[in-house]
Amino acid sequence: AMRIGILTGGGDCPGLNAAIRGITRSALDQYGSTVVGFHDGWRGLLTDSRREMSGGQRLDRILPRGGTILGTARVHPERLRAGLGDIRATLERNRIDALIPIGGEGTLKAARWLSDEGVPVVGVPKTIDNDIGGTDYTFGFDTAVSIATDAMDRLHTTAESHRRVMLVEVMGRHTGWIALRAGIATGAHIITIPEDPFDIDEICGLIRARFERGDRHVIGVVAEGSVPREGSGMALRDGGVDEYGHEIFTGAAAQMAPLIERAAGVEVRTTVLGYIQRGGTPSSYDRVLASRLGAHAARAVHEGRFGTMAAVRGTRMELTPLAEAVRELKTVPLELYREARIFFG
Ligand code: F6P
C-alpha cells in the first residue's frame, strides 16, 4: 500500500472529477492505498493545503460534476522552481510515495521537471483543447466540441433568418482541434485554425460568392488563436508570448468582422463562446475516458512506472514517457485540415 498525492492544475475542464474518482477508487479498492488530494493545483503542494480522499459517500456523485472538487490554479513555472524545497517538505510531511498531477501542458511540464528532480510522478492529461502529445485524446475535448456544436446549430438559424455572417470564436489558443471538429459537425462554411494562417481576402471572396449565388447565410468558426497570413492585408495583433514561449494572438473573430462587412457588404455578428465550453457536466465519452486514465495512472504508480503519463491510443490505455508527451503541442495536421475542406467552403 502507498500514500499517493493527487492534484488538478491549469484551466478547469469537464471530466476532472471523474479522473479524481478513477484514481481514488483504484488506489483504495484495488491496492488498499491512501490518497491525499492537494488543493488548487501546485499551490497546495507549496503551502501544504490538502485533504485525505476516502471512498464511499465523498466520491459519490462527483462523476458527472464539472470543474474540480480539489480546486485548480495556474502557477508560474518560476514560482514552482523557487518552491522546490517547500514541495519536498510537503511530500515528506505527508509521507507521499508518489504524485499524480492531472493537467495540461503547464502541469505536465512541471510534472516532468519534478520527475527529473527525483520525485516519483505519473501524469494524467486533460485539456479541452486536445493539444497534448503522446495521447490520441484528452478528456474535456469531446464535451467542449458538443457545446460548440450545439451553439453553432443555433447560430445557423439566426444567421439564415437575417441573411448574416456569423463568426463563432471557440477556444484553442494554439491549436484548432475544437474549431475543426465543431466546424465539420455543424457544416460551417469557414473554419480557421492557428496551424494554417487565414487569408482575409479569400474569406471575403468566399462570403461574397455564397451570397451572390443566393445563399442566405455564412457560419464561420474561428479558433481563438487563428492568425492572418503574412502580407494578406490584415495585421497580426501582437499579444506577446505566454509563460511557455508560445506567441499569443486573440480576438481574431472581432478583428475580422469589420473587414468582412466592408469588403463583402454584408452584416457580420460575432459570438465568443469562451468559458461556456469548459463548464458543466462532462459527456459520457469524457467521463469514461477520464475514469480509465485515472485508474490507469493509479495502476502505473503501484507498478513503479514513474516519469510517465497515462494515455489512450485507439481504445487502449498506455503509458507515454512524460518527456515525450511534453516535447511539443499536438497540432492539427495540415492534411487533416485540407481533407476537411470538402465539408466547408
Ligand atoms: O485550456 C486551455 C484554454 O482553454 C485555452 O484555449 C484558453 O485560451 C485558455 O484555456 C484560457 O484559460 P484561462 O483564462 O483560465 O487561463
Automatic annotation (TrEMBL):
Lineage: Bacteria, Bacillati, Actinomycetota, Actinomycetes, Mycobacteriales
Reactions performed catalytically: beta-D-fructose 6-phosphate + ATP = beta-D-fructose 1,6-bisphosphate + ADP + H(+)
Site (Important for substrate specificity): 106
Residues that hold ATP according to the record: 11, 74-75, 104-107
Cofactor dependency: Mg(2+)
GN (gene name): pfkA
Keyword flag Cell division: no
Binding site for Mg(2+): 105
Location(s), subcellular: Cytoplasm
Positions of the Phosphofructokinase domain: 3-300
Primary role: Catalyzes the phosphorylation of D-fructose 6-phosphate to fructose 1,6-bisphosphate by ATP, the first committing step of glycolysis.
UniProt cross-references to Pfam families, sorted A to Z: PFK
Active site: 129 (proton acceptor)
The enzyme's E.C. designation: 2.7.1.11
Name of the protein described by the UniProt record: ATP-dependent 6-phosphofructokinase
Keyword Kinase: yes
Annotated metabolic or biological route of this protein: Carbohydrate degradation; glycolysis; D-glyceraldehyde 3-phosphate and glycerone phosphate from D-glucose: step 3/4
Record-stated family: Belongs to the phosphofructokinase type A (PFKA) family. Mixed-substrate PFK group III subfamily.
Protein residues bound to substrate: 127-129, 164, 171-173, 224, 269, 275-278
Alphabetically ordered keywords of this record: ATP-binding, Cytoplasm, Glycolysis, Kinase, Magnesium, Metal-binding, Nucleotide-binding, Transferase
Recorded superkingdom: Bacteria
InterPro entries, per the entry: ATP_PFK, ATP_PFK_prok-type, Phosphofructokinase_dom, Phosphofructokinase_III, PKF_sf
PANTHER family for this protein: ATP-DEPENDENT 6-PHOSPHOFRUCTOKINASE 3 (PTHR13697:SF52), PHOSPHOFRUCTOKINASE (PTHR13697)
